[in-house]
Amino acid sequence: MKIQENTPLALYTKLQIGGPARYFVEAGSINELKEAISWAKEKNLGYMVIAGGSNLLVSDEGYNGLIIRINFSGISQKDGVITVKAGTPLQEFVDYTVEHGLDGASTMSGIPGSLGGAIYGSAGAYGDNIRDHLKSVLSLDGDNAKTLTRDEFETGYRDSIFKRNKKLIILEAEFGEFAKSDPDELKKEAEKILATRNGKYPQSVKCPGSFFKNVVLEDLSTRQKDEVNSALLDFGKDIAVLEKFGKIPAGALIEILGGKGDRIGQIQITLNHANTFENLGGGQALDFFQLAKKWKNKVKEKFGIELEPEVQLVGFKESL
Ligand SMILES: Cc1cc2nc3c(=O)[nH]c(=O)nc-3n(C[C@H](O)[C@H](O)[C@H](O)COP(=O)(O)OP(=O)(O)OC[C@H]3O[C@@H](n4cnc5c(N)ncnc54)[C@H](O)[C@@H]3O)c2cc1C
After folding, report:
1. What is the CATH number of the domain that holds 55?
2. How far apart are alpha carbons 127 and 148 in whole angstroms?
3. Which one of 70, 87, 104 terminates a domain?
4. Which atom of ligand 1 is nearest to the CA of 116?
5. Where are the coiled-coil regions (predicted)?
6. Alpha carbon distance 49, 184 (integer Å)
């Protein structure tokens, strides 16, 4: 285990933004992870795990503790139960299910990042969600490994027990009870999704995915719903389509208020999707934060809706 000092976190985030981690280590095994945590505890330092860095906004000041990058991976199957290690790229898991004709993960094709990060953020897209076939999660709770079963981590939209208890670290997870399907059909579906994604997030875009969580319709008062619906209709948006999954896209709210293309420094809201905040190159975390805050405030003023970031903020003194 090699602990580095003053490692620029911009190197480890999809956004390519972020000041230094005071200490940084790659954990290539569960033992190395435990060792790294003990090291941080002995030095009285805070610590945090990251993996693919695809859902992070790290402050320009960085992180004053130990960042542990989860770097152990692997997929195995026994008696219909698939075990996946936390650092496995989510795409490898999706490909595995597709190749084995297991229906239930193919529409997550193209979501960047690791399996552990996906469980942490309850990732999903176009109908499939990482929770759907999740049976149990082996996690590290302090010094002890413990298995959490389905009813213990059952959570809502883009939420998880791991978000609420940051000391729980996902080590590996078990999946099962997939319906059987034709691998070729699943492959076609996955490719269709990938093509749609490439339109929404071209490979060259430096962004952390959707910045804000979408708005759950159930959480709105009737008045708020009416106001949002009428503004969306005025803007020519098809409410039936937007409401299909019981949510209003945060991007639609920002778009109708004129957010597309708005820019602070080198951070811009993309022209094709108002919930994508892009680093045009050499961008600063502070500019990103200010732009996000500006549009969060505008949505709040107009609709009384408090947008919540989906992206995890690291090393900021103020919350969004
Ligand atoms: C272009 C683009 C498109 C995206 N599209 C989608 C989408 O369609 N749907 C969607 O849901 N998300 C999407 N995302 C967001 C992102 O891909 C997911 O949130 C992903 O699951 C994060 O995984 P990661 O390994 O990159 O996590 P990181 O960004 O490294 O970390 C994110 C959080 O997870 C925690 N974490 C990571 N690993 C562990 C672990 N083993 N144990 C405990 N906590 C852990 C970290 O502490 C951190 O708080 C997109 C991102 C990008 C860049």
Report:
1. 3.30.43.10
2. 24
3. 70
4. 41
5. none
6. 36
Same domain, 180 and 207: no
227 tagged catalytic: no
Residue nearest to atom 3 of ligand 1 (CA): 209
From the candidates 73, 106, 210, 278, which is the catalytic residue? 210
Q: Judge contact between 42 and 60, C-beta under 8 A.
A: no
pTM comes to: 0.96
Residue among 114, 122, 158, 278 flagged as catalytic: 158
| Ligand 1 site-directed mutation target among 120, 153, 312, most atoms within 8 Å of CB | 120
| Active-site annotation holds for 158 | yes
Task: Clarify whether residues 222 and 307 are in a common domain.
Answer: yes
Instruction: Tell whether 93 and 64 lie within a shared domain.
Output: no
Check pLDDT > 80 for residue 46: yes
User: C-alpha angle 172/212/283, rounded to 5°?
Assistant: 95
Ligand 1 neighbourhood includes 117 CB (under 6 angstroms)? yes
> Above pLDDT 70, what percent of the chain?
98
Q: How far apart are CA 56 and CA 9, in angstroms?
A: 10
Q: Same domain for 30 and 61? A: yes
Q: At what angle do helices 90-99 and 183-200 cross, to 10 degrees?
A: 150
116 in ligand 1 pocket by Cβ < 6 Å?
yes
Based on the residue annotation, tell me whether 210 is a catalytic residue of this protein.
Answer: yes
Distance of CA 102 to the CA centre of its chain: 23
Could you say which of 28, 54, 70 is where a domain stops? 70
Q: Could you list the residue range(s) of the whole structural domain that residue 98 is in?
A: 75-186
pLDDT tens for 173-183 read 999 999 999 99
Number of structural domains the chain divides into: 3
In a domain, 207, yes or no: yes
